Amino acid sequence: MGNCLKRSTTDDISLLRGNDSVRESSSDQLSPPNYQEALPAQQAILPVYHPSPSVTRSVAQLTEEEQVKIAKRIGLIQHLPTGTYDGCKKTRECVICMGEFMVGDALRYLPCMHTYHMKCIDDWLMRSLTCPSCMEPVDAALLTSYETN
Amino acid sequence: MSEPQSALLLRKQLAELNKNPVEGFSAGLIDDNDIYRWEVLIIGPPDTLYEGGFFKCHLYFPKEYPLRPPKMKFVTEIWHPNIDKNGDVCISILHEPGDDKFGYEKASERWLPVHTVETILISVISMLADPNDESPANVDAAKEWRESYTEFKKKVARCVRKSQEEC
């Protein structure tokens, strides 16, 4: 795919050329920057990661080892079930943001059966793979649940 | 842009603590315009050496709260093994999980995003009653607490008296 960072300069030309680049220059290209091709000057808008909870690095500054660690973590998190709050569950509050669940909120369920807003818990899991309520390590619990199923 | 989630969460806690105060401390802001910097007055817990004292503390929250812990500092002079001589509180729940292999070493004792001003203060008050000898922040106080308790008691009593005068 095209590099959206160059978009502002190539836009007009690509439109003039017509055919193949039309989709590329559509407005949704404004969303996530292209990580691989981003220039150092663009670091301010790069996503940041936390190889460990107190370490904050932009994606361009990660070591190879940290990249692997974070990729594994993202993979694990994606294996955790998600759902939408339907208003009739036992849990009514997300203990991270102390906000009540509203019908339609995206939720994530941890193996220990604790439930949080997806946004709230994913931000935490990207720093530490433990359930904030019971401290159960999420990765170990996930592996166990695979073995028992 | 709307207010960050951390500010909303802290505002909610402040309102809740104003409405339903918790025994043992009172909480407010250092500056009404800055929700990230709190001033807390801890009442020396009964049946401890700190009984009768009024200890002013500051809590400094990062913008990433509750993903990252606040820092806590005693403004009132205090003599305690887990509070260093500058007043900085050294308590495991205010430390982030270490950079251990799996990211959850002793997770139960470390910072978790479910901690609030209330749970932090409860831990600190229990620390006043029951110092943790294993990780002293004030080595001299820890040594005294272990080896010359009478001297330790005297120093604490002096802080308690001083805190009453300042109040």
What is the helix tally of chain A? 4
**CATH homologous superfamily caption of the largest domain in chain A:** Zinc/RING finger domain, C3HC4 (zinc finger)
Structural class computed from helices and strand pairing of chain A? alpha+beta
CATH topology name of chain B, in short, is: Ubiquitin Conjugating Enzyme
Rg over C-alpha atoms of chain A, rounded to the nearest angstrom: 20 Å
Strand line-up in the sheet with most strands of chain A: 3-6-7
Helix content of chain B: 25-40%
How would a textbook summarize the main sheet of chain A? 3 strands, antiparallel
Cα separation of the termini of chain B:
40 Å
Oligomer classification: heterodimer
H-E order of chain A? HEEHEEEEEHH
* First-last Cα distance of chain A: 39 Å
The number of helical runs of chain B is 4
Pfam families (chain A): zf-RING_2
Protein name (chain A): RING-type domain-containing protein
Keywords (chain A): Metal-binding, Zinc, Zinc-finger
InterPro entries (chain A): RNF11_RING-H2 (IPR042981), UEC_component (IPR052804), Znf_RING (IPR001841), Znf_RING/FYVE/PHD (IPR013083)
